[in-house]
Amino acid sequence: MQTALVDGILESLRIGVGFLWTAAWAIVMGLVITSLVQVYVSKERMAKVLGEENLSGLTKATVFGAASSGCSFGAVAIGKGLFKMGAHAVNVLAFMFASTNLIVELGLMILILLGWEFLVAELLGGLILIAVMALLVHLTLPENLFDQVRQELNHHDQEHGITEDPTCRMEGKDEYSLVTDGGETLKFCSPGCRETYQQEAASSGGWRDELLSWGGWYKLGNQYRKEWSVLWSDVIAGFLISGFIIVFVPQWVWNTLFLQGDGLLVTAENAVMGVTIAVISFVGSIGNVPFAVALWGGGVSFAGVITFVYADLITIPVLNVYRKYYGVYVMAYILAVFFVTMAFTGFLMELFFDALGIVPNLAGGETASEQRYFKLDYTFYLNLLAFALSGFLFYVYRQGLGAPGEYRDPVCGMRTDTDQPRAEQAPSIQHDRQKLSLISNYTSS
Question: Do 328 and 425 belong to one domain?
């Protein structure tokens, strides 16, 4: 019994780490691309263009979101900032969904771990979901409630002296404040965002010019580090949990939760159950993709798996953030709107793919336990390139190459802060060096 348990744990770790190894290069490359977009695509006046409930505002919200970060909590925080500044609720919801479901790193992971059919369902279904959600919000939105919540949110933040980070719209903190040349005090959520602001203020020229300088690469390294700082725990948890689910959850559990067979009722139940499992799974952001692989391997239908992937914005931890920001009623409204639209869109996707005859079938393929993950193939070489690029970006940031207002340690060359201990060269040492220079010149002549 004990031996079987140990073997099961080792197999779970092998599968989880194997999944992570398989998708590592895609995660790194996706985060690099996301960081490039975050740094070099201006988001000025975003709230102003998202203020109207029309097709233009919805389209821009979707594009802005797809070009944004992949963290669920980050998307919610940015959405709060946009909402406070006047963005319409439907555009805020569209932005949040696009920033967690239509981003590069998620698409690459889905393609590698689940296949192109799921990638198409994620992208096409994401657009359909946003359209259905917009229609549902248009028909049901309690305008007075949201206007009241917006006023209360602004009043609460003003009363408690809460200011937003100008770079990421998350809550600023006193310890990361900065006084501009004009005398304005800005507060940032972290040293990284403060450095990003300083770098942007000091930068000149276009993105091509900046990428030819250390300053441009420092900005990219700083943003890349920030992306990893909010995602690493979800990524690792998602992969490890998926391995344990595949090994330890018996098949009868999936057969009990998800109806088996064909028909509209089975598809609808699987779609609803997929969202339900996502809500209580506590796994958000791109960490839910390996979890979805475990569901797919357990025989869950196409609709159930794709709705699970959609639903990272209504997990219990994220719902709690909605409650803190907007109150219970708005939290319940967001949950209801997203739940209905996600389940309905997943239901449509399976019907559509079934009509085209392209619903993937795992029968005959290798199971997660049968696969060999660590071998000398294209994944190995792509991972080497990805790790080298990742290491280079962290090195640039760590060394402070091109950092704003940088100071260097004369021994190791690393960046130091202005308030850290420093030493001035003693006059006697300078005098001795001058004498040595004169003697050297005299002897050489």
Answer: no
309 and 419 in a single domain? The answer is no
Residue 121 belongs to what domain range? 2-407
Q: Which residue is it, tokens 């070009």? A: 67
Find tokens 């995660």 and name the residue: 27
Residue 444: inside a domain: no
Residues 167, 208 within the same domain: yes
**How many domains does the chain divide into?**
2
Q: 207, 197, 17, 166: which is closest to 81 by C-alpha?
A: 166
> 428 and 304 in one domain?
no
| Residue 422 vs residue 296, higher pLDDT | 296
Other Cβ atoms closer than 10 A to 348: 19
Residue 445 covered by a domain: no
In a domain, 246, yes or no: yes
Whether 178 and 195 have beta carbons less than 8 Å apart is answered as no
Tokens 């798996």 label which residue? 305
**Whether 234 and 91 share a structural domain:** yes
Q: What global pTM score does this model have?
A: 0.72
Q: CA torsion sign, 87 to 310 to 233 to 109?
A: negative
Asked if 387 and 419 sit in the same domain, the reply is: no
Residues 329 and 426 in one domain: no
Structure token pair of residue 95: 């932005």
Tens of pLDDT, residues 299-350: 889 999 999 999 988 988 889 888 888 889 999 999 999 999 999 999 999 9
